[in-house]
């Protein structure tokens, strides 16, 4: 079974003016599609692996035959990360008062504002290409970063202390923002708060609890 590009649950222009339509179209239909194509090519000799959900695939890198492992890490990571990223974007949601996720954020970071500042600092500090994440790890929330297309789902053996259950993620590769924000990555990161799908983040947080991540 080949992997496919997931359709977006909104139009390319839906996140304007924060994330522009041109960037969204190129990012989704070209960059993400390329990861899908390359992953399928790498796994052509391994039909058993292609049957796995992509999150399960990247979480089992050690079981991937060595000739395909690097491609699965890079291309599979790109597919998994972007699929997660699209679901995490939506205009008009908020971190609800009284929600378990808000309580956990306030318990861990002191306040939503303090969390945002730490997330922005970590995302800005990524050298070159990578991602910033809010993850559940060892029963606690943490802000972490990964390089290239590494995913927290890949585990400690691959990503070290960045391992965890993703709740929120932000792509800080230049292709995610350069058409609109040029070299001003911090402006792009701040714009992210206007399009965070907190409903999805809360769902991921609850799923993490059900999966024993809390």
TrEMBL record:
Name of the featured protein: Superoxide dismutase
GO molecular function: metal ion binding; superoxide dismutase activity
Record keyword Oxidoreductase present: yes
Protein source organism: Cladosporium halotolerans
Lineage: Eukaryota, Fungi, Dikarya, Ascomycota, Pezizomycotina
Any one Pfam family match given in the protein's UniProt record, by short name: Sod_Fe_N
Role played: Destroys radicals which are normally produced within the cells and which are toxic to biological systems. Component of the mitochondrial ribosome (mitoribosome), a dedicated translation machinery responsible for the synthesis of mitochondrial genome-encoded proteins, including at least some of the essential transmembrane subunits of the mitochondrial respiratory chain. The mitoribosomes are attached to the mitochondrial inner membrane and translation products are cotranslationally integrated into the membrane.
Keyword terms, alphabetized: Metal-binding, Oxidoreductase
SUPFAM superfamilies: Fe,Mn superoxide dismutase (SOD), C-terminal domain, Fe,Mn superoxide dismutase (SOD), N-terminal domain
An example Gene Ontology CC term for this record: cytoplasm
